[in-house]
Design goal:
The chain is 38% helix and 21% strand. It contains ten helices and eight strands. Strands 1-4-3-2-5-6-8-7 form an eight-stranded mixed β-sheet, sandwiched between helices. Helix 7 links the parallel strand 5 and strand 6. Helix 1 crosses helix 5. The longest helix has 14 residues.
Length: 224
């Protein structure tokens, strides 16, 4: 994507009412007004709040929002030029139960209050295979602690990935730390009875993976 195109998308994001872009300073110094107030101040209802972390173009957030009109969805990514597509689609199609938050996942517990979130989706994250990159792996122990802080007591996390490595790493960590694995499958499209929202919603890249017969893995779990 050219720099002109990026700038155009950044400018357009600023005009969208469904895009929130707090500064790091606002989050760190507790000046972010929506923390603890997402449903009351932004969505103006008390529906369950669901996050998609590393949402990319926002395809999954948009599809889930359409599928579950009685839930509120927030796609989160640091790359605003990417989720511009999802935000624009939501504006054009008047999908009012979805928003996009531009921030780093490392700051997630500064953007949401304790027990404010009902569910988290992590879709096709970078597996960060090299050992020195483990601190960026989105299901490592430190990230799980942040998720637990903002999730309600019965909140769940969904991990959908094409990476067998990420799937195995996460399963091993969950079992090792005593978390509750509710469902796990290393090839959801080959398994009868796979959750419908996992197999009926596909991102662009997921479609490409499936064309190459690459297995798509899925884990649903609770953090203890």
């Amino acid at each position: 994507m050219g720099s002109k195109n990026k700038l155009k998308r950044f400018r357009e994001n600023e005009t969208f009412g469904n895009v929130i872009q707090p500064t790091r300073d606002e989050l760190v110094h507790h000046q972010f007004d929506l923390k603890g107030q997402w449903n009351k101040s932004f969505f103006k209802n008390s529906n369950p709040l669901v996050l998609e972390l590393g949402c990319g173009k926002g395809e999954y957030s948009i599809a889930l929002a359409k599928r579950y009109p009685n839930k509120n969805f927030i796609g989160i990514d640091i790359k605003g030029a990417r989720f511009w597509r999802g935000a624009k689609t939501a504006v054009e199609e008047q999908i009012e139960n979805v928003a996009f938050l531009r921030t780093q996942i490392e700051l997630i517990d500064l953007a949401f209050d304790e027990k404010e979130v009902d569910e988290i989706w992590i879709t096709f994250p970078d597996p960060q295979i090299k050992y020195k990159r483990t601190k960026h792996r989105m299901t490592n122990s430190e990230f799980l602690k942040r998720y637990k802080k903002i999730l309600k007591d019965d909140g769940v996390v969904n991990l959908k990935t094409d990476s067998e490595f990420m799937h195995g790493y996460t399963l091993g960590l969950l079992h090792g730390e005593g978390h509750e694995v509710l469902y796990a499958n290393h090839n959801v499209y080959r398994q009868e009875g796979s959750p419908d929202e996992v197999t009926s919603i596909q991102t662009h890249y997921e479609g490409l993976y499936l064309e190459k017969n690459k297995p798509i893995t899925y884990i649903r779990f609770k953090i203890k």
